[in-house]
Amino acid sequence: MLHNTNEWITFIDPINNTRARMSLRDFDLNLLRVLLAVYEAGSVSRAAEHLGLSQPTVSSALGRLRRALGEPLFIKTASGVTPTARTHALASSARAMLARLETDFFVADRFDPAKYEGNLTVALSDVGELVFLPRILDSVRRLAPLAMLDSVTLAPGELMRAMEDGEVDLAIGYYPDLDAAGFYREKLLDHRFVCLLRADHPVQDRQLSLERFLSLEHAAVRAKGRSQEIFEKYLERLRIQRRIVLRTPHFMSLPGIIGRSDLVVTLPHAIGHYFTRVGEKVRMAEPPLAIPHIELYQHWHRGFHHDPRNRWLRTLVAGLFSDGQDEWPYPFA
């Protein structure tokens, strides 16, 4: 356990029940964050990635802490590092101490959505707007009536910078570039792919065979959203080539195109459902392949993990979306 007495830190070793004193002015409490990161990751390199630091910086911090305590903290292994018995005990005390410091000194003011008059900014693709935006808007209008909901679409590099600067609160949907150090994410739901054909297409199969799928001519979407990459890369891995006669960057033109041709297009099932609901002369069919699902997350930057406004918004989103609440049911369930 750690006790702060004026300008000294007194360490009580829970194993040996001995005391040691260090000058507070010489002790950097950030070293405890490093200790916990390495302890939980079991690896200096993984801890460095989680902290957003270089591996030499983390190693140097461990060296400083080891010298301050006067004994080894971790033992190298083939797969990383393993803590000593004393480190096991110190980690528990350090975790409690840092949690107390955060509670006492760094908890921000509460966020009152009913009085908030600023922007709530989310990054969404065009398909993401279709899936997420209506329900988010309904809840924001009800709970934060003075706020403005702002939906944006940015290139990966721009999005990362905007989230780091606080210009974008959440990115919601399929954003593989945000699976990186410095960002948190929370799983919301899974979506899958369906095939879309015109309603009176000569092929009326509810599930296309691979032979039938490859015999048809295809439209392919290269939208700014990244979800289509899952399908395209899956075909590449299987070395399957289809006959593409149309490429387009847009989803919204597809009903008119598919409804007036013998083409087939493979797309996320939410947008397939939408096109069949709005009166277009198109229908869905199951694809012949076990295409990986689209895992949809909400992402936020670690710099705003404890921000009360960001926390309120992501709690709202998490409460609205899950596989059990998905309004875009699988077509042939």
Report what the structure shows.
The strands form four sheets. Strands 7-6-8-15-9 form a five-stranded mixed sheet. A five-stranded mixed sheet has the order 12-11-13-10-14. The protein starts with a strand and ends in a 13-residue tail after the last helix. The protein is globular, with a radius of gyration of 26 Å. It has three domains: 104 residues, Arc Repressor Mutant, subunit A (Orthogonal Bundle), CATH 1.10.10.10; 110 residues, D-Maltodextrin-Binding Protein, domain 2 (3-Layer(aba) Sandwich); 93 residues, D-Maltodextrin-Binding Protein, domain 2 (3-Layer(aba) Sandwich). The protein is an alpha/beta fold and 333 residues long. A hairpin with a 2-residue loop joins strand 1 and strand 2. The protein has eleven helices and 15 strands. The longest helix has 21 residues.
What's a quick, concise take on this entry?
With 333 residues, the protein is of the alpha/beta class. The protein has helices spanning 30-41, 44-51, 55-69, 85-105, 126-143, 156-164, 210-215, 227-238, 254-258, 269-277, 308-320, and strands spanning 2-5, 8-12, 19-23, 74-77, 80-83, 119-123, 148-152, 170-173, 183-191, 193-198, 217-221, 243-248, 264-268, 282-285, 294-301.
Note the main attributes of this structure.
333 residues; D-Maltodextrin-Binding Protein, domain 2; 11 helices; 5-stranded mixed beta sheet; Arc Repressor Mutant, subunit A; alpha/beta; 3 domains; globular; LysR_subst-bd
